Structures are given as structure tokens and as C-alpha cells.
Amino acid sequence: MIKAALSVLLVLVAISSAFGKYIPKTGKRIPQTLSRGWGDQLIWAQTYEEGLYWSRSKNKPLMVIFHLPDCPHSQSLKKAMADDVEIQRTLDEEFIVLNLMYETTDKHLSPDGQYVPRILFVDPSMTVRADISGRYSNRLYAYEPLTSSSWSPT
Amino acid sequence: MIKAALSVLLVLVAISSAFGKYIPKTGKRIPQTLSRGWGDQLIWAQTYEEGLYWSRSKNKPLMVIFHLPDCPHSQSLKKAMADDVEIQRTLDEEFIVLNLMYETTDKHLSPDGQYVPRILFVDPSMTVRADISGRYSNRLYAYEPLTSSSWSPT
Questions:
Q1: What is residue B20's predicted lDDT score, i.e. its pLDDT?
Q2: B1–A129 C-beta distance less than 8 A
């Protein structure tokens, strides 16, 4: 560990002459965006701390989406949200947004467990609004896109 | 807050027919990458929790860079690191990397204050290696690129 770290630092201070473009052995990668496909035009917070900061300073609620790339429910919700102009506009203008693939240390963000997809809202006062939930009684903060034909208001 | 949240959720479950591309009033934005310019070919952790998880599971040390977009020292260090093929290769193959613009809740990541640019290393055992420091006695974890002509080994 020290050896590897020092090798980086040594290069860092000496700045070798090996300028150019680094290409990984496995081939060129497409840089990962903060949106991760949930809306490329939104300004996404990177971390929960950053989201809380922006929520407080801009006085807008924070929306936290927990998701996983290999979860089909996450993927279909993502597509529905990213493709909907009105959702994107509302989120962009009235919310601070954050999408996470890893849990935070704040237990308030998992009132009934750590499942995906899961959406929690946080007030600008930094209060997690566990009272805002979806339509499933067993997983209160799960959401899924429904076509209007299969959806009936209760 | 509730009103705005509900309006999103309502749209979420009903999925309106307003499919298309959302363009912000202020014009189209370029999606922010996780690299933030520190190396587009590296696989960046999004959060500290994610970085710790990858460090532990891949048994590689975690390098955490704190920086700010409007800090000229951060910018010059970023350019030097991103442009150096050897640094990029070492980081890609031997490290888990994370760059942050906001502080975390782990005080161990700011042993002598919260300044930028600042680089801390964390062992796969999740120990912050405060013993790995740079060349400045007043800011132990600050680094800056030096040309080889102005650098002399001690």
C-alpha cells in the first residue's frame, strides 16, 4: 500500500514526461455521468452531504433515489422518469436530486429496509420525510411506473 | 414541499404522455461526469461509502481527492494528474479513486483541516493513512505539480 502510494506521489511531484492519453488495457471506456441515465439534463448532487447542502442553501426538497444497475425494476422506473418531460422539468426546477447505488450512513433513509428502487424525500430543514410514501404497504418507498390503463386512483 | 413531491409522484404513477426530451430554460447542459476532469478513463467511486466498499472488496487502497472547481491549485493539480499516463495507469490498476467537492462526515479525512486540494489514502482495512503526506509541513495532505527542473530530491 505505502509502496504504491509513494510511487504515485513520486510521479506526482516529479511529473514525468509521459504526457498523452491513457487507455486502459481492457479498452477505452465511456466516462460515467452523475445522472446514470436518470436525466442527463438535471444537475445531480454527487453525495448525500452535497445534496443536503444544496437543499438547505437553495431551499428546495431533496429527492434521493436508490437504485441498482442490475435491478429490472430500477431500470424501468429510470426509463419512465428520464423519458418524461414533465417529471424532468419538475425535478429540475423544484428539487435537488441525488441518485445512489450505495447506502449512506443515515439510517433515516431506510425507514423500512434497504431495497431498490427506493425514493426518499428530505426537507430543506434536513428532515427525512418518511411520511411521503408510495402505494405499496410492504415497501413504503418503492415506486414503479404504471401505464394509465392499469392505474386507478383510490 | 409536500405539494411539489406529490405532483412528481402523481406524474410518476400516472406516467403522462409528455414523452420527449427535456431542455432546461437556460439551455442544454453537458452531463457532469464522475471524473470531473481528473481522468475520464478511470472508474470513479461516487461516494465515500462506495469507495470504501470497493477498496475492501478489491483489496486496493482508496485515494480520496478533495478539490473545488474555482480553486486554481486544484485545477493545476487536476491537469497534471489527468495528463500523466503513468499516474493514470497506476491509479487505474492499483487504486480505488474518489474525487469530492464536499466534505464527508468522517473526520479522519481532515486530520489537519478541510482545505483543497487535499489527498488522503485509505487502506483496504478502512484505516485512513494520515501517515502518508506530502511535502508541506503546514498542510500535510496538500500536493502540487512541480516541473522536474524546480524539483530536487532531498
A1: 74
A2: yes
